[in-house]
Amino acid sequence: MTKRAKAAPDDELVFVPLGGAGEIGMNLNLYGYGPEARRQWIMIDLGVMFGGDDTPGVDVIMPDPGFIEEHKRNLLAIVLTHAHEDHIGAVGHLWPRLKVPVYATPFTAALVRSKLEEEGILDDVPLHIIPLGGELKLGPFELEFIDITHSIPEPNCIAIRTPLGTVLHTGDWKIDPNPMVGRKTDIDALRRIGEEGVLAAICDSTNVFVPGRSGSESDVAASLEAIIATCKGRVAVTAFASNVARMQSVIRAGAKAGRHVALVGRSMHKISRAAIETGYLKDIPSLIDEESAADLPPHKVLYLCTGSQGEARAALSRIATGEHPHVHLGPGDTVIFSSRVIPGNERLIHQLQNDFAMRGVEVISAEDHDVHVSGHPARDELADMYSWLRPQIAVPVHGEERHLMEHVRLAKSLQIPSALHAPNGSMVRLAPGEPTIFDEAPHGRLHLDGSVLTGRDDSAIKERRSLAYAGYVAVTIVLDQRDRPATDPVVICAGIPDDIVETARQAAGDAQDRLGRRFDDEKRAIEEVRRAVRREVQDAWGKKPVVKVEIARIG
Amino acid sequence: MTKRAKAAPDDELVFVPLGGAGEIGMNLNLYGYGPEARRQWIMIDLGVMFGGDDTPGVDVIMPDPGFIEEHKRNLLAIVLTHAHEDHIGAVGHLWPRLKVPVYATPFTAALVRSKLEEEGILDDVPLHIIPLGGELKLGPFELEFIDITHSIPEPNCIAIRTPLGTVLHTGDWKIDPNPMVGRKTDIDALRRIGEEGVLAAICDSTNVFVPGRSGSESDVAASLEAIIATCKGRVAVTAFASNVARMQSVIRAGAKAGRHVALVGRSMHKISRAAIETGYLKDIPSLIDEESAADLPPHKVLYLCTGSQGEARAALSRIATGEHPHVHLGPGDTVIFSSRVIPGNERLIHQLQNDFAMRGVEVISAEDHDVHVSGHPARDELADMYSWLRPQIAVPVHGEERHLMEHVRLAKSLQIPSALHAPNGSMVRLAPGEPTIFDEAPHGRLHLDGSVLTGRDDSAIKERRSLAYAGYVAVTIVLDQRDRPATDPVVICAGIPDDIVETARQAAGDAQDRLGRRFDDEKRAIEEVRRAVRREVQDAWGKKPVVKVEIARIG
What we know:
Chain A is of the alpha/beta class.
């Protein structure tokens, strides 16, 4: 194992995932080096994930950086592997709490820059561009960026050399022999680092349940070309905007079929600008805008649209419901979903496909056509990676618990000496000695609820889940100076059927009558009214709403 | 075409789906015969579907039977094809509105009976048992029940003979050459009816996107046996309780591996009782109860559990979270998901699998093992069915719009002369003349919200969706006899972060002050306060809560 500098006797090399080791999303990886009292840290990636039905009203969720915030004086940098939201999406929100330099390759930097601009902190953030294959020294850490392939331009593995050994952080990856856009995987570099000796591989687990290989963007390109060649009417393709190779394949397939291509949706434009700015998408025919496309005959048009996940405000949903100002599809036209279904989005996507079906539009998807490949390594690719690196330790990341566990099993079956299941918050000592989880760092989630960033156990979000289930009854009791009711209780309900609203009103009135003069013990009276309303509503409706009672006193 | 009686000149044969032709679930099919003024009807199936995230707090959804309720004097019967909830689940809720005889084969009748018992209407409902392969005359309709295979005992195709031709209503089906429990598909009968001449086939569309064949329960049995034979610790298998063949396969595989089998979960017991009562599950070893199983060594135990969809109150979820009183799984134990993932349940099921992974329990699922087959026909099976029946008309049902559309395309490719996309509410004239949708029947959904059965556009459920997104502010303004505020406004919030609650309170107070004496125009005042609160909260939070304002007057 190459050791650049000599390790001091009490030096330790530590890995701490605060996000991404328990979910696929919101990656935040920390590497620490040095004796505990003077440990220096680098952060790899700082991403978000999207809110779901268990967090209603929350757009994005990010890792709670509290642990590293406490050590921010010893945090040297944030280093980004690639530009997907689950790796860069929290930079704009959390950088102000950390205030350290940010490093990224050119395409990633271009997208981070536009994010920081939106947050109004572009001028504050020291954002440094690392060339592809570049190197970077940060305190005791020597970083080397290694080309790999994924579903976005410029994904990087990062080799992190320390006096106690080298860690290879894979980032998100696959082995695409023909990625269409950007460089191929630098297998020689991975082998070379393997030869040098790898202490630990911290590796993507997303597709650990998928046998075989993920396939190539070039296969999708060929398949799209064949399908689009046979289409008669208008064609709309939807894909993840960040997949620039896919964007290029669709544009070329359209051109080959004699169609003019228009990008539809904000992020398609944003990403294509960033791609062109950083030297990608050079050999494509010129695009037209969606207004001009509307004037062309159907067989001359191809739209490349955002909204493959059924997002309500994205281009494709608006086209499906007929609300898009310029793009209209009907009988004879075709929509191609060149994308996967992110778990949790099934119903939205199927609804979108049903809307198109109702308009007589033919729907083609990865369900029955080869129009998508994953950007993550299937099992044979994982085996390749481990054969190149031959690490002493495997620590799976980028997965739910079930993925991490399966990845540990796989690594063991591949004869990796140690494989560790290290969920979020695990403080893993990689060296010296046997790898071990020696402590747990505070960890959790922050929810962006409107403009408010709240903790995971946020009571407002929990309460909204209860409201969704059984609605709300707010009761106001008005008392005079002598603690006697001055009006009927005011009962304001939401989300409750009309008959049951009557029940609630009646229950509150009865409870007020029953209490009579016993409002001097305000707390007890409130509790009694609350319980009476909940009980009566439960009896009538079978469900218990959230009930809150307040007392107003006259002058 | 066999015509039993002669059709009168103004007779028509009409098909109207009120549910199931637009969703996979809540099937309700109507067949009408006769001239419009004296048309007689039969209903095939009366099912529910389960509520989702767009209907928070709603357990089940069923078709609005309003159209046939209006014609209930001419409704002859409800005929059930098989016992799945999406075919029988609404009988208990909607029979009181229809009050007609119900017909079913023995196993289906046993489960309907227990449903009616729960609703307390068992004695009211004339429930008639039809033998397998039996016949039934209902007014102008002559029905023949034909054995087929599915994922539950006693699925039936129903041949409906009328003076204007024969309709073959497939119900839910597949072609399982070795269904393990119950009879095989009566292919001879289907061919015979095809020979007689079939006017229309009304056919299952669920798996129209799936190429090939669905596979056999016997393959799953072999696979389960092989997997369970290699397990070392405790084994828990989860499957749909209604799949009695699967239940038998799991029990036998357990016994073969020297394990005692315990059923865990209410519906496992309920269905096994109904199965034994009607002559199934005869050749299985005796079962033990879950308490006794807990005392056996791990390699001697197999649990067959409810909860494959991640349902929070079902056995498997309680085992995963360690809350089950008798069943405990840990390192060395195995859970087998012998089931599919119903779209929309992905996150719940993955959470369950993650919980097991965290306990060190190995999870095996259809994702990477052959432990499940579908009960619905894949494309080659559909082609077989059409080759036997050779109908004049194909009307796909049991599918979302995208399935119905694809099924129409498939039927056309199989040279069926007419294939009709007839979504819910379509009034399809099958004969005489060209098949055509000649009108639209009122149709929709009823939501069971607690104990209240409400219409689809139910405002309470809609409002709860808004509450889930942005919470609730209830404002009470107390006025004295001269229309002047007698207290500060009472502001009761739910689901809103604390800082924003302050904003709302302040906004209501300011609005009350601004209004001063202008509370005589109560409506305008209320609207002004409401708007002010919404605006201020939106400015501070970026989201608009539901805001309601009421005025209390001191007497």
